[in-house]
Amino acid sequence: MTPRRILRRLSVAGAALVLLTPMTSALAQAKPVAPKITWGSCGTDPKLKPFQCASVRVPTDYDNPYGPTTKIALTRLPATDPAHKIGTLFTNPGGPGGPGVLFVHQDAQRIYTPEVRARFDILGFDPRGVGQSDPTTCYLTRADEDKALANFAPFPVGAKEQRQAIVDAAKLAAACQATSPDRLAHFSTANVARDMDLLRQAVGDDKLSYVGYSYGTYLGATYAKLFPNKVRALVLDGTLLPAWYSGSDGDRSPIGVRMRQGEGGYDTYEQFLAECKKAGANCVLNKLGDPKTVVEGTLERLKTHPVDLTGPDGSTLKMTYAVAVAVTFTSLYDPNGYPDLAQLWVQLAQLSSTNRALAAVQAPQAVVEWSRRKDDYTSIGTVLQPCVEAKQSGRPLAYPAYAAAADKKAPHFGEYRLWQGIQCEFMGIRDHDAFLGPWKNKVKQPVLVFGTRHDPATPYEATRPYADLYPDARMVTVEGWGHTTIGKSACADKLTTDYLTTLKAPADNTTCQQDRKPFDPVPTGKKAPRLLPQ
């Protein structure tokens, strides 16, 4: 055990001791060495032939750079014009807990323009604790986890469920601490930023070119603060305001309240209903009457009378009020999917009002997508980053009161998003190397910041305060709907391409439009990237 770890253990125990020795001083001054990357095949799947894969080891604890190491899995899509390559474009798809390797494999060829793919190797990595990197797990096996979480609802409804949810959250936190204590103790975004800087050195780039989506903008802000002189270009899309996430502004509300996702979800939900109404026959909900009246009435019935839908594999999904809210929130990420969401609500409205046999009713695409996304994580442990770095309320027993207030402010979605952080209230492990502000940085280069007007997960109101953390941020508003701009606006794509390839940044307060309205016919082959709910 290193002296630094001994000091931390004693501090946790409440001892007022300071250990300053030559060894601790030497460890603090030691610099980690960039790993060597040996690129190879990504496997036998023909779809992965264009990509190269590798894994490297990085320090588990940067206070002890020559001590234990952590595996980081990575992949790259090589530049199509290597003779004119600028460097490597690092990416992060969000989360926290989003696997960057899977993101690049599934989406890089589609969401980045030919000009960007010609000039950059597109790199994705699974952050420490996530995916194919050494994962943070909460149970010994996946079967154990599935069994333990089998009865978890998206959020509790009513006093009885709320009491049980608090108990279950405490049990989950205990399981995670028992299974992955060391990985949790070094799980902070600051350590991911340090990993990314080692990877930047490993690929031979003097400065970082980076695109971060959603939580990836928090990683971007952390990197900018820790390594301001190592930035070449930052594209930050769907901004997560660091003070909200970390609690560094003194707000001790639960993280699920601070993030304003309830308000963002409810705003986008109302936009979905309004656009549906304006779309007339192009939105099937209009056949049943006023869309908001239909959906609100159905939600109320689902609180006491859930209905069953059958998935493509024959399994049955019970559509409770909580599941319906969660499916809707996730479906609001992509306006191309709003027709499917409308179809879901038509089925639920008809089924909940008739109580007829439901076994033969097939789940709409919106439900299929939601069910599939639940399997993106190796373990629920990979999404626990806020537990070890963000400040918590310290009042888990007050969550029912917080829920009531959140529901009044943002019906349905406020309560749903509040409960997403309840397990963090019981997490006794902290990463003492986490960075929690102040957040103003000294990056000299212009950075490109995107905000979508109606974004359920990263509300637009955070965009300007986030941009103001940088000395020269160029904020672009995309008028439209959904989470982040990719796959939705050719205007935003062009600005991103020009900025990354030439460092030509648009004027601050530029505006872009989306390519289509939510209920316009979807172009053939149009598909949204799999950005993950935070």
What would you note in describing this structure?
The protein is an alpha/beta fold. It is 40% helix and 13% strand. Helix 8 crosses helix 9 (215-226), helix 13 (291-302) crosses helix 15 and helix 14 (321-331) packs across helix 16. The longest helix is centred in the N-terminal third of the chain and has 21 residues, at 159-179. The chain starts with a helix and ends in a 21-residue tail after the last strand. 51% of the residues are buried.
Which features would summarize this protein structure in a list?
single chain, about 525 residues, alpha/beta, nine-stranded mixed beta sheet, two-stranded antiparallel ribbon, 21 helices, 11 strands, disordered N terminus
Instruction: Tell me the Rg in angstroms.
Output: 23 Å
Uncertain residue segments: 1-27, 372-377, 530-534
DSSP, total strands: 11
The main β sheet shows up as: 9 strands, mixed
Helix content: 25-40%
Task: Please report the number of helical segments.
Answer: 21
Structural class: alpha/beta
The strand order across the widest sheet is 1-2-4-3-5-6-9-10-11
Please state the overall shape, judged from the principal axes of the Cα atoms.
Answer: globular
Mean pLDDT: 90
Write a short abstract of this structure:
The protein has helices at residues 3-12, 22-29, 100-111, 114-119, 142-149, 159-179, 181-184, 189-202, 215-226, 242-246, 255-258, 261-279, 291-302, 321-331, 338-354, 365-373, 385-389, 399-409, 413-418, 463-467, 490-502, and strands spanning 52-59, 69-77, 87-92, 120-125, 208-213, 231-237, 307-310, 316-319, 447-454, 473-481, 510-513. With 534 residues, the protein is an alpha/beta fold.
